[in-house]
Input
Amino acid sequence: MKPSALWKWVWAPGVRGCRNHAYLRERLVALPLLTALAFTPFAWAHTTVRADAAYIQDRAAPALGDLADARASLQIADGEAADSLRAGRAVELSGLSERYRTRTTRATQRLNQVARSGALSTSERQDLDVVAGLVADYGTWTAWAQANAADRALREASLAYARSILCSTRADPATLVCRPATGSTATAVVDRVTALERALQDRIADRADPGADVLAAFAVSGVAFLLLVHGLWRTQVFLHHRFRLYVSLPLLAAALPLLALPLLAADAVLVQKAQRAAESTARALSNQTSPRIESAAETHPFAAPDRYVIAALEDSVDRELAEGRLAFLGPAPAWVVPAGLLSAAVTGVTLHSYRREYVRLTRPGAAP
Output
């Protein structure tokens, strides 16, 4: 179709001078094509946005929370081990504190959950296996320090080596908070866990960005949608004037699926907005949480919680993504393409039947 013909087809308001046969032939080609262009790119883009949100909610965000909790738990356990070992010989009989055992077990469980999450790449999974091995070595050397608690030199040497496995450097020796290293010096547990957290943050940011391809698909679908609505309306006007039909019921039925596209577009906007909010909260999981905050929340469970408690941030991400959609749509997005193809087929069959077997109902002498 030439640009001038397309302009006339879109904007020409009248039906006088149009031949029935030629007019229906143009609609027979244009309307099903516009229907396919309105539904198919939209379905792909909407599915991509929803899949990205599901990946963040079900895989990346939980894995990021597990890594943050494991990192904090190991540092809390390290502080508990240091406090327990100061008792000297007494710790050989009493053992390390219950809090140390609870936190190390919790860290191990969290790392296992990350391994099962499916959020990591193959190389990242290998790094996680290295972290698990280092955590086991840390526990071995801490137990060795406990077994030799009576010998101060051996106890302190064992504990120092255990801490070197956990942290490369410490931001504050008094509070035993680790400062993550980068590059070739990032060999300790906290360094490697922090690197995995950054990788997941980048992946979440990438999924939260719709991308040029998704935006282009929505743009194509939007233009096709407007042209299709206008084309269907003009076709109904044409049939009303030339065929004396009050309304073409098959074409009206074929247009009904179009009502779902604005709702699904609103759903996509809400999902995208929720992804942006979840991305910000996910960054807080890594950048704002600390062993001090987690320890305070554990010590004072009934006090007003800090906004950067890991459990609260995990709930916030899940809530943001769960609420960031039109829940009443349910499985409707899965039916976008079938509904569009059915609409195109009904439109084509209807126009083809009008074109082949129409009866001229206009005034005598009108052009066929």
The chain has a mean pLDDT of 85. The beta strands are 169-172, 177-179.
